[in-house]
Amino acid sequence: MEGLHLTADCFMCQCNPALLIEEDRLSNLVRQTTLQAGLTIVGEKFHGFTHPDSSPAGITGTLLLAESHVAIHTWPERQAVTLDVYVCNFENDNSAKAIEIVERLVTAFQPQQVSRQSLQRGTPSETTKSMAIEYLSAHTAMQTQITEVVAEVQSPFQHIQIAISPEFGKIMRIDGAMMTSEKDEFYYHEALVHPAAITHGGPRTALIIGGGDGGSTEELLKYKSIQHITLCEIDEEVIKLSKQHLASIHQNAFDSIKVNIIHRDGFAYIEESSDQYDLILLDLTDPITANGSNLAQSCMTESFFQSCYQRLNEHGLIVLHLGSAFYHAERYQTSLARLRASFDHVQTFDVFIPLYGAMWGMAMAAKDAQHMPTQNYFQLSKQQINQRIQQLELNQLQFYNAELHHRLLA
């Protein structure tokens, strides 16, 4: 009876509207998707509903599987769909097949927002553990135990959850994907901020797009040279929950007089703004639909990178995460190619993020009208790095130092 139970709530679906009201069309999609994943159908029932005027309404459908079930409900008036897939893993591990079904169906409905849940079922009640799962691919996942969900909000943009993990303390999840945790946030935030800021040598102004947990803002405020930070986070609910629950990460950075918070789409802000910055940090959610969120997609295009180039001062830098070079190879290489087409110098590096369960790729890119040789642009000696750390009064670091800088860039 041990198994994996997955749900997905799809909102603002952009698919053909007929898929939400025609029984044959919907049942064929669900049936073919399930067979392609390699599961065994032993029965099925789909029922279409109608409004009082006899016009078509939504559909409820279920496939009975030898491995358990696939269920679906559509709400055409809300452009919404709920998916429910449960597979038994007693004799064979069918988890990858369940994940494949959910991913294929979500892709077919083309939702603008998705809320996902994952539950491991079938262990005795005295040992039952709620697990938060980070899907790195359809076949590989990292998971950690959750003892309590302390806050959960469905914002106009995404599903946000604050939970407690024995390993990581409080964690933030967005659309089912891990974002940050109290115990390991410094691996990500210090790697995102300090290699680029130290390479610059004395950043005074910075723009953070995303970054609603406040971790990257807190790291930038450690620089005595910083005079102004613009934090552009589209979803004010992320900042609201971070203020309430993640103070150990942001250290009340939101309240600094140096920080200006703007709730705007990052792409629109870059296009419309005339402000110039020494640093631009893209502290974004994953720009891939596997986690159900596409808020970050527009901020990973070549046109967006070119707009960022125009917003940077001379010798300014942009820094961003690229995902895993192993698990997200296509996304990684595509983003990197766009970055190289837009900036004069690009440097990649990798850092292991425990919460994500993988080596995570990052990149910093520089604007340099003087066109210094690329091979020399990011090469700072350990002595230079230590001097800049001292001059900038960069204190209270948990991870970053001169030795690590060289290891990251090796």
UniProtKB/TrEMBL annotation:
The active site is at residue 283. Its cofactor is pyruvate. Residues 129-367 form the PABS domain. S-methyl-5'-thioadenosine binds at residues 158, 233, 265-266. It holds the Pfam family Spermine_synth. The keyword Lyase applies. Its EC number is 2.5.1.16. Pathway: Amine and polyamine biosynthesis; spermidine biosynthesis; spermidine from putrescine: step 1/1. It catalyses: S-adenosyl 3-(methylsulfanyl)propylamine + putrescine = S-methyl-5'-thioadenosine + spermidine + H(+); S-adenosyl 3-(methylsulfanyl)propylamine + spermidine = thermospermine + S-methyl-5'-thioadenosine + H(+). The keyword Lyase applies. InterPro entries: AdoMetDC_fam_prok, PABS, S-AdoMet_deCO2ase_core, S-AdoMet_deCOase_pro-enz, SAM-dependent_MTases_sf, Spermi_synthase, Spermidine_synt_N, Spermidine_synt_N_sf. Keywords: Autocatalytic cleavage, Decarboxylase, Lyase, Polyamine biosynthesis, Pyruvate, Schiff base, Spermidine biosynthesis, Transferase, Zymogen. Spermidine binds at residues 189, 213. Catalyzes the irreversible transfer of a propylamine group from the amino donor S-adenosylmethioninamine (decarboxy-AdoMet) to putrescine (1,4-diaminobutane) to yield spermidine. Homodimer or homotetramer. HAMAP family: Spermidine_synth. PANTHER family: THERMOSPERMINE SYNTHASE ACAULIS5. Belongs to the spermidine/spermine synthase family. This is Polyamine aminopropyltransferase. The gene is speE.
